[in-house]
Amino acid sequence: MSLSSQEIKRIARLARLELTPEEEQLYAGQIADVVDYIDQLERFAREEVHEPAMAPVEREDVASGLRLEPEAWLANAPAALDHFVLVPQVKKSD
Amino acid sequence: MTDLWQLSARELASWVRQGEVSALDVTESFLERIAAVDGAVRAFIRLDVEGASSRAEELDRRRSSGETLGALAGVPIAVKDNIAVADWPLTCASRVLEGYRSPFSASAIERLLEAGAVPVGQTNMDEFGMGSSCEGSAFFRTHNPWNRDRVPGGSSGGSAAAVAARMVPLALGSDTGGSIRQPAAFCGVVGLKPTYGRVSRWGLVAFASSLDQIGPIAGDVEDAALLLAAIEGHDERDSTSSVRPPSLGGAWRDGDASGLRVGCLREIEAASLGDDVRSSWEQALRRFEERGARIVEVTVPSLEAAVAVYYVVANCEASANLARYDGVRYGHRTEHDRSLEALYSGSRSEGFGPEVKRRILLGTFALSSGYYDAYYGRARAVQERLRQELFEALEQVDVLAMPTSPSAAFALGERVEDPLAMYLSDVYTVPANLAGLPALALPSSLDSEGLPLSLQLLGRPFEEAALLRVGLAFEQAAEFSAHQRPGLEAT
Lengths: 94, 491
Known about the structure:
The complex is a heterodimer of chains A (about 90) and B (about 500). With about 90 residues, chain A is mainly α. Chain A is built from 4 helices and 2 strands. Chain B has helices at about 10-20, 25-40, 50-65, 105-115, 155-165, 180-185, 220-230, 265-270, 275-290, 305-320, 340-350, 355-365, 370-395, 420-425, 430-435, 465-475, and strands spanning about 45, 75-80, 120-125, 170-175, 190-195, 215-220, 260-265, 295-300, 400-405, 440-445, 450-460. The mean pLDDT of chain B is about 95. The interface between A and B is large, with 48 and 63 residues.
């Protein structure tokens, strides 16, 4: 198969990746090669599988695991103020 | 006198427990070894010399105050850079996590500390575990200690190289499609991927959650078992971790292979293997026969499809798992953050390397509307068939034996430009992950160029003890002795 420039742009947008025109060309070619290889699965697949890879595991709905102070988490935030992570403005002010 | 760094983990732990040597002397011996040879190998991304020394001193204090130390007392250990250690950086060899420090330790690390181990540093890897050569690290390339022009394998290449060069007696790796076993094979050491669910994944950075497993890399089978015994077992913080009792209670140490049925795959007999790889594998089968085992031919027709299945399933999961790196709560954030959307895609594009981008794109493609059934759905169906075929084969035999890799360590740079060629070298390691089976890679011989070759054994789920027993029988019979080491000159 080959991936059109429009198609690789669509995938990149879904993956939240910005690609340069050179990257678009490179990845479109490489991904098409891998997809051609993967297409051999058609020969092997006979039946459909519906169940998930793993059965769900249930536990009591109680808080457990890691408890850390907010500062410990926020220490890794690129930008924080008080106990909040800062991000660019989401909604335009009127 | 033998240098301490030449000893096995079990010898070191026993000496430290008995007070024959101090944990500090052991740690210092390995730190000196690292200082002498890591300039040539470059296995470590970072070391914690101070932390390791003070940890060793603490163990010595505890011992002299009468405390009985654990099974890994004073044993230095290297940790792959995708397993969390509290207050250490954790980067998965990626720019996207540069500067990140883990606020907590993985369950496996907590257990190691409890057993008295001394973490000394973090090892190089392919970014996020995506690669088979360690060349995908965003930081630098690691060299194979047997031949510095060759790759150490990947993705746990730093861990395998560190053990092979005797910079540590033990290392932790992680294995999603062969990332413990293939580098162990290329570096002439032992690597074990436990059964899925045997070792808690809590604190392991997720790549493909249904396939990922933490496991040991060691100089020989007994040391690998020692490390597995320390880290295995149920953990309620990982809902996929098994409640089955630990695997190593039984008498597996007799290394008895008599009466054993060793499965030999018809598909591999027909495969194109290098001459050296084929003769090493055939020789391994003869060794088993000499020790009283019976070779039984079995068939796994879907083996041929394993790589294709793997690169769909693993990349689909990776594209979802890696969505968390968006520059908001942690990790790299772009300066071009005029909008939230630009913040996400800018941070990701600047932070991820080419192989990670390629795999995220592939996974996103295979999960996207219009392609899901043809790729993800179909791959899952073939995965299920492969799993059934392997389970059926393992009903007829005790273990399956095959080469770990179709070749010995390849040259640095050889496969960087050709991702598909790189992927195809995983053909014998991905089946164990796709079926959740335990698998052990063992050095078998040296090829005509003096590079290690490796035999892989696959066992039944949660029967690591049986696998180790067969592994030990092979180790005792193989040409390759654990005392064989790469001839690294101290630099």
